[in-house]
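Lab manual, section 2.4: Encoding a predicted structure.

Procedure: take the sequence of the chain (298 residues), apply the prediction step described in section 2.3, and record the output as structure tokens. A sample record is shown.
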Amino acid sequence: MPTVFDIQRFCVNDGPGIRTTVYLKGCPLTCPWCHNPESNSPLPQLAFIAENCVGCGRCAEVCEQGVHDFSSGAHVVDFSRCVTCGRCVRACPHDALKLYGREMSVEAIVDVIARDEAYYAASGGGVTISGGEAMSRYADTLAIARAVKERGWHLALETSGFGPTAHFVEIARFVDLFLLDYKVTGECRYKSVVGMPESMVLEKIEALGAAGSQIVLRCPIIPGFSDDIEHFKRIADLSRRPGIDHVELLPYHDFGIGKAKSIGSHQYLKDVAVPTANATAMWIAEIESFGGRDIRKS
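Recorded output:
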């Protein structure tokens, strides 16, 4: 059964038109700039939103595992003790606690999606499956994709290209648009930074292009990781490959830092500045100077 950490309605950045995006939990990659760190574990997990906490102590009263401690005068959360029973979340009157991830049947997911069906037809929108890395949960993703297409909705799949090429060729029968990430350049760099081979992504571009699939190549631009000339030249080259409709640059943002802290993680980028609009425009101009075709800011 799929483990979902969010279903966002009225999305406008995950494909054409107004969309409903289903976020599946679980990602095997190691991108240090991850903006959805709550998606990395395939299991449900507790989050503590410190700014909402008023120190009432109700969570500690109901928790049998000793996760919540107020003895120091502050609310200290020991995430390692948590068994994700949800008692503290239900007891908190100020939404300072939440659980990321819940099991949902495919039928229940489709029921939520169906609430916005009228908007899909009116806007040229549809459904997007995302993550985490949705293709690391292949059986669940395929089941959702089948159900979506049975209803006649446009389907986009956001993915890093992780997994067997055969899976992508199989699911392509149900996917109208692939939102495919290309993160850094170079096999060794891809493995060390992202945690997967660069060749795995390039294979997907070739196979999906040959199959006639439509691809939007999404390129996160992270200062110190992917804002170099070699990477811009590779993006320009890939933009001209069969199947690539256009390229979207995703400038680094720091929204993931607060979410990482909320789940007790210290794995996030530090001292990296958010790029300015001028910097993004310069990146687009550089890629275009190398022959890049239809380069856009996401």
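Check your result against the sample. Residues 3-42+103-297 form a domain with the TIM Barrel fold (CATH 3.20.20.70).
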